[in-house]
Structure prediction request, 666 residues.
Amino acid sequence: MKLNVQASMAIAATMLAAAGVFAPQIAEITGKAPAQMAAEPETVAIAAGSFELRLPGEFLKNDYPVDAPLQTTKVQRGFAIMKYQVSAADYARCVADGACEAPEANAITAGDDMPATGVSYRDATAYAAWLSKRTGAVWRLPTDTEWAYAAAERYADDALLLDTNSSNPAERWLARYRSETSKSEPDPEPKTRGHFGTNAKGVADIAGNVWEWTTTCYTRTRLADGAAQAESTDNCGVRIVGGKHRGYMSYFIRDGKSGGCAAGMAPDNLGIRLVREPDSLLARFRKLLPAKIA
Amino acid sequence: MLTRREALLGTAAGTAGAVLMAAMAATPALAQVPAADIKSLPRQKVNLVAPPFVHEHEQVATGGPKVVEFQLTVKEQPVVIDREGTTMRAMTYNGSIPAPMMIVHEGDYVELTLVNPETNEMPHNIDFHAATGALGGGALTHVNPGEQVVLRFKATRTGTFVYHCAPDGMIPWHVVSGMSGTIMVLPRDGLKDGNGKQLTYDKLFYIGENDFYVPRDENGKYKSYETLGESYEETLNVMRGLIPTHVVFNGKVGALTGDNALKAKVGDKVLIVHSQANRDTRPHLIGGHGDHVWEQGKFSNAPAKDLETWFIRGGSAGAAFYTFLQPGVYAYVNHNLIEAAELGATAHIMVEGEWNDDLMAQVSAPGPIRAI
Prediction:
């Protein structure tokens, strides 16, 4: 748990900090010589740009929950993201190498055609580390911003657009329930690769029935009201999952269906889609060398 | 046939008649009525409605006893019982799990036509816990595929009662495959709070809870079967372990959540009838109460007041009367929370209306911990 008491700019910084927590882990792993190079998963190049992002997390104004601010967000440099979700077969290879834990028994699907499901945030980061080692490139989970940007037209604004003056807390509960119910009729059976088609940016199956882990931590922000400064509390025990609606999941949950709260709609499945960092000079050099020397 | 109400109001009768009536009024439902007189009673044909709803009915009876006709058709069919698409070879009355609720008044005659279509595999029957004799009617209602039978019984005791299939040698299998429902016998003058005050409900929610026992294959996946016969032995093995794979409301995990969540308004008086034919359960309305609860479901007993959780014995149905006081999304659960959250026994009720700050308020919203 980390406490930020900052001006309103703090929110984007918080998200970057969350990504930063993760980055050193990758550097350490890829610093070792990769034992064996593996084929690179197919990626889609996402160009730099800017878009309207409904900020993640919960927001309070004058002690009442409100919709998160809509913020024009710049993606400074482009990135490469996996065209498809990590497949069950890919994940099984990581399990076979002893680098990943077997997915939840109920969620086992097999084959290159099926997405890996029944995986937690821990599993997802372990897979990223393993894939980085295998390929010599740096693979990591996307941030919530990157995920939303790559999801393009499939990224669902989760604002409820209610009258903010109401002092009836039940209005938001009921509206949230209706909104999530309408967006996701339960459809838990994982579908074959490509079933949900590609979005405008060429990313396949995004916002289908497998939610994808991001590095972004849950944040609760009390918005400035003129007198008080904005302040926020992070809980990195809970990470955001991207899908038909934004989900908030404890890092160890593998089955989103039972990871939800008493009266909310949970993700159908939890899976993985990774971002590849541009190669560093050192990595590019290593790739030129025969495996034995490297 | 005379009800207590009619007997007390029967001022038009002569003195001798009044004495006779007073004697009968002490046990009105038990007075034997000649068959010819039953034939002369008014008849009412009721079309049953699938749960969680119930057919239209009067809470306070107008007029005297009647013969109420119902029909149940046995449907053996595969049903999906969870979000993963697990398919169970089910046996049902009228195709729903639980079977529809029948509602009559004390002193009415229930006349049931039980149809077992030729396309079915199994013989079936029906045991009404509300009925007296012949194993609840079970001994008089055995029907093979291609047969039908008509049973009449007198509703002599008030309350909510389970009915279920009870064929020789296979009773539990038929019950945990879906063959149970509920009949509610209302007092002729409606429900009372125990102090003589009338309780009138705006809505009735009929929650049938079922425990299912679905075998798994060697990979841990739930099995499905082509026929009931094929499913029998392995299902029985799971049943004998006494640990259900599913505990659900309305036949399926999530049958009463999301788009199918129940709906009410602040101020609505709701009667929630909870029926479990096989296994104990403990309903709880999260954020609410049972204002007046007939835990055992029998209206001759005064209801318990202000319950947090109530206990429904396996093989019985109970009723809880509640007035919603706050808006919000309520969860109605079996408060063995493992069964509620992991096995499926959760319903949601969306309640609209004005928030009552006096009953509850968030004095300070969540924020950083301050020095105290």
Summary: The interface with chain B takes residues 3, 5, 60, 63-65, 105-106, 108, 167-171, 173-174, 177-178, 181, 185-186, 188-189, 220, 222, 231, 233, 257-258, 262-263, 265, 268 of chain A (CB under 8 Å).
